[in-house]
Amino acid sequence: MTLFPPRLRKLTLTLHVACSVGWLGAVAAFLALAVTGLTSNAPQTVRGAYLAMDVIGWYVIVPFSAASLLTGLVQSLGTVWGLLRHYWVIAKLLITVVATLLLLVHMQPVGHLADAAAQAALAGGELEGMRIQLIADAAALLVLLMAAALSVFKPRGVTRYGRRRQREQIPQPR
What is the pLDDT of residue 121? Predict the structure, then answer.
């Protein structure tokens, strides 16, 4: 296994943390807009909220999610943690992949609401189910916080592959 030199490791870690925190913050902003769009009585505010959600989704959240996934993969391949050596890394990878895929699926209703808001002001109960769904979708915030917690606490647990790699790295007596 080739480890990154310290400067490259720090650079990739910084990029990964920045992308992950950006993703988390953008989802928080998305949640605030979803709540505003559902609860506001001002048609212009509702319209602006759904149009902004579409922009934030496609130009901030989706790129940050993809960048977080990519930088996490690069980081895992160039550090002692590896990609498949520790259960917490695998869990983080699965969380990120599933969250990114679900994000892409759930951007469709966001686009639909943004189109509806661009055409006319949304009345109080119009598309209410979809509007409530967007608040529920923002529960991704909890999932992203769970991934962050895994990075900080790094629960013990080495995979079979990780144990085998550890044994291979221990010098054998002659």
Answer: 64
